[in-house]
Amino acid sequence: MRKITYASLLVAFICVFTACKDDDVISPITPAETTSDVTTTSSYSSINNWAYGVMQDAYYWSAELTAISNLDLSLDPFDFFEKLIYNRETIDRFSGLTDDYEALQNDFDGISEIFGIRYTTAYLDNSSTNLGLFLSQVTVGSAAEAAGMKRGDVIISIDNQSITASNFASLFSSSDTHTFSFGKLENDTWLTESSLTVTRMVTEENPVAYSGIIELPVSGKKLGYLLYTQFIPGSSDEYDNQLRSIFGEFKSNQVSELVLDFRFNGGGYISSAEVLSSLIGINTSSNDIFYKEKWNESYESYLRSRYGSSYFDHTFLDEANNIGNQLSRVFVLTSNSTASASELVINGLTPYMEVITIGENTYGKNLFGTLVGDDENNSNYGIYVMLGETTNALDQSGYGTVDGITPDYYVEDNLIPYLPIGDYNETLFSQVLEVLGEKTLASARLSNKKTIWRKNKFYAKEEQVQPMAKTIITLPKAGE
């Protein structure tokens, strides 16, 4: 075995419409002082040999690799790498090759310039010509938030140009500064209400987009609500400690119901998933298994012989602000963007309490991986390689497919403009209230407000919030 320091990641690549980016809060990585741009055909064989070695060594499905003698090492590295992937369409949808390691590492670490908006597109009228951007989330700490943008806003033009399917991508890519005009629907006509000029900026996002205690409309009981957009500890565990503080408030206020809103959460650090789950689990402690790991046969054998079988078992933490004894269940709101560490929390809590999922099928990633740079050739290539699979304490891990986790209550988040998070009539929260028998006082939204059904069934985003889960693991040299 080669010695490589791996940072295990639990992150899903869910690129929709535009480039994926991560909003994280890690200090920027300083690029290597000397790297060579290895792009010539004569260099391909060395890159491909390196890539094959990494995959043969660490890839979860290394046993399925085609023998290197049967592969063409002169291929473009991207074409070569695809020949190493095990069932790209259905199983390994995540491993990938990059020729800009530093850029991808910075993306994983959340170093990116963004406006800070997440939105759905839909036509503004029956002519199916002009599009609106219906804001579903504004990133905490972003330029958009600083300018005053909020969930529910509708952008009807960019730089005084109407938005269409043909100019949409070019409008965003043409500049780092744009003037966004916001519309208001009056008598079936969209009128410009206001405009804001916003410049992309490097953003360190606080993953706690919303937290609050909501009094239920019928029983008067208290419900804790957490909109959490990525699993990230922050500098000096700032955001993990914020979670602890929030749950301290939930605990002291005798919250008896809990909603975890993961609809925008594409994954994150496993350590933060452990913190959050440990604040929730009923009768859980450091003696109880949160999740287990499975590696390829070589590493399974090595790690078991060196550290014992317990190496693969990861337990809950002993958290002073755990509210499990106040709960009988937890509600989790999901979408197709709910992935990786979010799914790990759902799966990991299931053996210990009732987990009720509401929304759409999750993305379906029960794998952990790492980003490996090409030190052998001093090139800027890198591989995001899947190292293994996670299961819960009952050895359950059946969501690693394109179908993901099927929600208990399938509800499409398809009513726009979006209502504020925590509003009784907000699409997914309304279903929570219905399950709780608390919907009596929640008025029917369609009866008093013009509602537009989403016509484009995708989440078009300015950026994708998909952080990673990291556990630093040093793999052994041959003979160790």
TrEMBL record:
Keyword annotations from UniProtKB, A to Z: Signal
Family matches, as PROSITE patterns: PDZ, PROKAR_LIPOPROTEIN
Ranges where the PDZ domain occurs: 101-163
InterPro entries to which the protein is assigned, alphabetical: ClpP/crotonase-like_dom_sf, PDZ, PDZ_6, PDZ_sf, Pept_S41_N, Tail-specific_protease
Record's keyword annotation contains Iron: no
Leader sequence residues: 1-21
GO molecular function per UniProt: endopeptidase activity; serine-type peptidase activity
Alphabetical list of SUPFAM superfamilies matching this protein: ClpP/crotonase
GO biological process: one example: signal transduction
Superkingdom in the source lineage: Bacteria
Name assigned to this protein: Peptidase S41
